[in-house]
Amino acid sequence: MKKGLSALFLASSLWGYGEGVIYWAPHMSHGGGHSQGKHGGHGMGEVTMLHAMNLDGNGSVTLITPDLSKDDLNLTDTALTLPKATIGGYYALVLTHRSENQVDSAIRYLSQQGRPSKISPTKLTALPKTDLEIVPDPLHREHDRYTASKSYHFVLRLHNHPLANTTVFLETRNTPAQSVITDAEGKFTVTLPNDFKNVQIGRSENKPSEFLLTTQHREGDTLYKNTLTMPYSLNPNDYWQSQPYGAGAIFIGFLGGLFFYRRHKKNQGVSRG
Asked: What's the rounded Cα separation, in Å, for the pair 101 and 218?
């Protein structure tokens, strides 16, 4: 039965990005993407308006702040305008939709500018937010960003306990769904694809894209579905930067500096002689 459900879920996932699940996405009035800051920092690349995709009917929205307080927010149709942040750090935006025998949920973490909370984001990720929950393990640092061609770790929890041997799908707009299986501790790792198109030189010239993690689990008569969406940026090392060439340039620069230093010392010796 479980294999049959997984196959059905896989098939539905392959129909299209985010098909059959609710998830957060940047609102199209914001260009359907992000502003890409030239520097790191809180709020980097974040949007202020989001869209609850595939939400059919009413859904409850909760914004969990870095100090773990909770605010209930209201959707306008399926659009959400985020309130101005007063505390800097990570926020968790949680959407829940309950129907007969099914609970759908969607989570997105937002890095916002404001007064430093001095509270570790691990407390936010450790806090149970939905029955079934994909959790970054860990959430990357606020001055960092999810980047293509890099691997990231997550853990899947059901009722705040690790959920083993469960399929999780990774999707992006330009790459078909890929599946991974959680281990005995509910952990799994995904590598974000290098699938940016029309790449321009310079990170700030390329808007981040979105990745979507989806999973589901049936317990008794209830089917739980959960999604996690986050932005990710292209990796300069895949295009205009090269770590081996960069290391070679540093080594050549070191040899050149050493040559001129020895030449200078030799000339000084000749002058004194």
From this structure: 10
